[in-house]
Amino acid sequence: MRYNDLTGKELIDAYKGERLGILGHTDLEINPETGRIESIVIQDFSMLGLKKGDTNSKIKWKDIEVIGEDMIIVKPNKS
Prior knowledge:
Elements lengths: L2 H4 L3 E4 L4 E5 L3 E5 L6 E9 L5 E10 L3 E4 L3 E4 L5
Parallel strand pairs: 1-7
Antiparallel strand pairs: 1-2, 3-4, 4-5, 6-7
Protein name: YlmC/YmxH family sporulation protein
Pfam family, one: PRC
């Protein structure tokens, strides 16, 4: 799967049933040694696309449960 295939998909928290963001409006943390994606960083943006502040959250790549046609379901580790 290519990054382009993931862009535009909604990120959904399976535990809370809430929308976390849209992939493409996020950053990826990539391990420089392995080249693997470690996590998705979700920035806190307002409705107008302006950044609200320095608040962001991370979803570990291993917490992704399903990548569907329109959305990505994640089950974040509850630790």
